[in-house]
Design goal:
Layout lengths: L5 H8 L4 E5 L4 H13 L3 E6 L19 E5 L5 H11 L3 E4 L8 H4 L1 H22 L4 E7 L22 H20 L2 E7 L2 E2 L8 H17 L8 E3 L5 E2 L2 E2 H12 L1 H4 L18 E2 L5 E2 H11 L4 E4 L6 E4 L8 E5 L17 H7 L7 H13 L1
Parallel strand pairs: 1-2, 1-4, 2-3, 4-5, 5-6, 6-11, 7-10, 8-15
Antiparallel strand pairs: 9-12, 13-14, 14-15
């Protein structure tokens, strides 16, 4: 896919409603591009770091879309950020770029902070200086709630992060608020709870499970005598899993609150109107063990759990493969500090903006497993 220069992008964007989507090669960014191509007539510019690298799988289908264009964008490069914003003067800036793998944030805390927090300062400052009518969305996370006080978590829950990733997102939230309050920018950061799909990266536990299910099914199909189990960390943590395709609709509603909220005052930069930030979730939580059971069941593997703690295993109930282990615990995947139960309260966004999740937990798991099997 061809990468445009800033001058080329400027020529294309002139006189048109322009949207910049960062992290466009990832799950959320690519799904947002699909959503906007379907639901708007806007010109889209997808930015990602080192786009010369062949990591375009999620946007290959957009190669012939005449309203979608790729540009280079690096969240850690202040000069690059200012140049893009000052030249394109976007109407919308949707930031999905991040170091988004929670476990890696303990291994690379400084990089996580530079990408997820310092980069937001540069974006906000550039919007303030060069495109003050631009509507900015930054991807927030349920990890900001951290050591939770109550469940389900709503917009009033205190920020108590338990990972460098969660801390970086909580800090970014305060920066977004400062620029919103100080300069009247349309700048918001929603709390997106775990949201998954067929474009989820391989390092995330849900995709790790569904790809393992597909692999094990192939091993069984080709008569491999001993199945190689998938290794996971804490099996008992609870997460609120939604479909990422549902979540990008929620993000767009947050960016256009006056269109969806009948009580919303028409947006004006000065004085500042009452913008809101929302929790986006399914409203129910499931353990990793439940995800495992559902994923294997879809592929025709019924099993049972044996053992406790580090010795816990998921055993296949099979006459042909007695005592074959499908899942086992690997303590190296434990996090230094874990959040035991994340579950979102979506009453506010459902009431104000009319958003509802369309995909159930079982439907989501089924979609992911069948995709990886295919």
């Amino acid at each position: 896919m061809r990468i445009l220069s800033i001058d080329e992008a400027k020529q294309i964007s002139r006189g048109k409603t322009t949207v910049i989507i960062t992290g466009v090669t990832g799950q959320d960014g690519s799904l947002m591009a699909d959503y906007l191509l379907k639901n708007t007539s806007y010109e889209l510019f997808g930015g990602a770091r080192r786009l010369s690298v062949a990591n375009h799988e999620n946007i290959e289908h957009l190669a012939n879309e005449n309203r979608f264009h790729c540009i280079n964008f690096d969240l850690t490069d202040a000069h690059s950020i200012e140049k893009v914003i000052s030249q394109l003067k976007p109407d919308y800036f949707i930031n999905f770029a991040a170091q988004s793998f929670v476990k890696s944030s303990w291994d690379f805390p400084a990089q996580t902070w530079d990408t997820n927090t310092k980069g937001i300062i540069h974006i906000l400052e550039s919007i303030h200086l060069h495109s003050r009518y631009c509507r900015f969305y930054n991807a927030g996370s349920s990890e900001e709630f951290g050591n939770v006080e109550y469940a389900p978590q709503d917009e009033k829950h205190p920020l108590r992060p338990r990972s460098p990733y969660g801390a970086s997102k909580a800090a970014a939230r305060q920066l977004v608020k400062v620029y919103r309050d100080s300069y009247g920018l349309y700048a918001i950061q929603g709390w997106l709870f775990n949201h998954e799909g067929t474009r989820r990266g391989d390092e995330f536990v849900t995709r790790k499970i569904t790809k393992a299910v597909a692999r094990i099914q192939q091993e069984f199909k080709f008569g491999i005598k001993r199945i190689t189990p998938v290794e996971l960390g804490n099996l008992n943590v609870k997460r609120d899993w939604s479909d990422a395709e549902d979540c990008v609709d929620a993000v767009w509603r947050m960016l256009n609150q006056e269109q969806y909220n009948k009580n919303f005052t028409t947006y004006r930069p000065y004085p500042m109107c009452d913008l809101k930030e929302y929790v986006v979730a399914s409203g129910e939580s499931h353990t990793i063990k439940e995800f495992v059971e559902e994923a294997f069941l879809i592929a025709g593997f019924k099993g049972h759990w044996e053992g406790e703690g580090e010795d816990e295993k998921y055993i296949w109930d099979s006459l042909s493969y007695p005592d074959d282990i499908l899942v086992q615990v690997n303590p190296s995947f434990y996090r230094p500090a874990e959040i035991e139960d994340l579950r979102g309260n979506t009453k506010s966004i459902m009431y104000d903006l009319g958003w509802n999740p369309k995909t159930s937990f079982k439907e989501l798991v089924k979609k992911m497993v069948l995709k990886d099997i295919s």
